[in-house]
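User: Please predict structures.

Assistant: First:
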Amino acid sequence: MKKGHQNSQVNNKGNFDMEEEKLGLLEGLMTARAMRRYKENPVSEEDIWTCLAAAVQAPSGGNIQPYQFLIVQDSDLRLELAKIYRKGWARYEPAIAPKDFPNDTVREGWERNNRATVHLAENLEHVPVHVLILMPSIDMTVYDDEGPMPVGPTHASVYPAVQNFMLAARSLGLGTALTTLHRIYEDEVRDLLNIPERYEVLALIPLGHPKGKWGVAPRHRSADKITSWDYFGEKRDRE
């Protein structure tokens, strides 16, 4: 069994069976980088169910679970989704492309990431599973005699499930990437897949066997640079 793949499944009673554990939680968190190059090998339905079972264990406000999953495996539908995605990318890429870079290291990093992003856009239909995350358009603001209590957007109760899904995929040796370019033409996605208008299509996650290597992705802002202690702006060095 290759490193990073756990022979596990959720049984029909909702319990988690683990025959062998090879990937620690922290290692999975640290190395679950976005994968944008995939093999065309199929993903088993059992693995998809395992990822879904992990997703619904994520916390949500009041345990309301304000999300639906739409699994797209049909090759014709994947092709049509890819066309919509590419149409969005054709507009988005030139709009975000930086004109200047502070140094060669930053430029090379951006170019490397952009090549992978272009590859995904050009080959999305070949990824065997597309996972769409749907959220009903609801307002979670609560009111009392003093007025509204804006405790946060509904999205805050959805994205933990998205992260759980992606981390479960990592534990199974499967790659994912969080994408949202389809939202530029979201109505076309709804029409294609018979999604009711009341649902936002928050994310499209490709799911498949990656060609890339797992590892800790570079971050230009380390934890010490963006963390304050007790008062905003009070920094500490990690010993």
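Second:
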Amino acid sequence: MEMKINRTPILESPRLSKPMHRPKATEAEANAMDREAVRIAAEMRSGWLRLGTLIQEIAETRAFETLGYTSMHSWMTNRLGESMSGAYSALRSVRALRGVSEAKLEKIGERNAHTLTRLPEKERKKDEWIQKAANLPERQLKAEVDAVIERKTGMPKERFRYWGEAVPESVADKLDEMMAKIGRVLQVDVSERSGRITALEALAATILNTPDEQLQAETEGSDAA
């Protein structure tokens, strides 16, 4: 009696090419690849700095008008697309760390630079924090920044919980318009989580500080319209 052997056809398919056995790199080739890998990694690490600096220059020189756009936001929406939130983040970091030498900032990764912006201005520009941002892993730096903020404010870091609801598309469109409007008023980027939280907190405060009678009159008037 023949035994059936379990096979995996996809792994045995003749169409799959066999791994290429390339010759071992020469010393010169290995050194060249090593230098190129280090160069690319360094460029990726400091990419936020170059992008944020360039975005700031476009805004300050109003280059977007020369390019035919009515606003900086319009240029960013059309030219950067899905990368716009990252560009805003880079711009905020560059502005928040203004005065720190470029040589020092080039050693800091994007996320650690963003974490530094949560500290008070004088604090985040100190050599101690700049060095920490250049050398510490993101999680460790974030923990130290949280600890400093907690000590200064006397308020422990709040826990987060999910808050949301599926709604009809017509309602979702109105909510998107609402968030965009409050974002413009508060001058925050609602495409970023922190910006959305700030916007929602402001909206909640507005509702909670409005007397019930006034709120009822305004909502009923809106429904009647």
